[in-house]
Task: inverse folding
């Protein structure tokens, strides 16, 4: 077992304890002990690391991301939503290739990891997305992902086409049988759900 001493611990236990100058003991890939300094636990460890007052906390969860849009930051930020989407974002996204989208996702993964995010829900449209490439990028990052294809009506795609595309993505992700890469669906609005149900 490996002990991390002199560490400040933020927990997600039932009372959200915070332990200043606590002790974290890890065995293989599992936390064996997390709490106040305890000499008995320390005696069981073959390796000790002084964390010098650093903080350890559970990974953050980003519940709403559009990771491939990292490349679109700063495009006409002062526009109203419809103008921004219809005149700037959607035309730019329509030019995305699978390689461009995958690179953008990789940038987003790096940013999320640097911020302490370990799990994210990614909602994205089909433009330039190769789900296998996105899956491989997420697996290489070590993060957990809930990939959620968006459902909304647009001039470019009928409701029926959206459902066919979404079913194909769901089946593809389910075929991976990976508990760290799951699929959900992201209806864009209640009105859409009423239209397609």
Result:
């Amino acid at each position: 077992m490996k002990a991390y001493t002199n560490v400040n611990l933020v927990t997600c236990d039932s009372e959200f304890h915070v332990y200043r100058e606590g002790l974290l003991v890890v065995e293989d890939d599992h936390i064996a002990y997390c709490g106040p300094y305890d000499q008995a636990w320390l005696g069981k460890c073959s390796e000790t690391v002084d964390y010098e007052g650093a903080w350890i906390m559970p990974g953050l969860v980003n519940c709403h991301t559009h990771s491939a849009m990292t490349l679109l930051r700063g495009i006409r930020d002062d526009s109203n939503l419809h103008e921004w989407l219809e005149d700037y974002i959607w035309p730019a996204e329509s030019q995305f290739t699978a390689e461009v989208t995958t690179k953008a996702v990789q940038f987003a993964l790096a940013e999320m990891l640097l911020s302490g995010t370990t799990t994210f829900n990614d909602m994205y449209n089909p433009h330039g997305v190769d789900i296998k490439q996105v899956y491989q990028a997420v697996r290489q990052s070590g993060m957990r992902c809930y990939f959620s294809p968006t459902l909304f009506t647009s001039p470019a795609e009928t409701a029926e086409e959206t459902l066919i595309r979404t079913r194909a993505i769901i089946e593809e992700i389910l075929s991976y049988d990976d508990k760290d890469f799951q699929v959900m669906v992201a209806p864009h609005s209640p009105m859409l759900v009423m239209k397609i149900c």
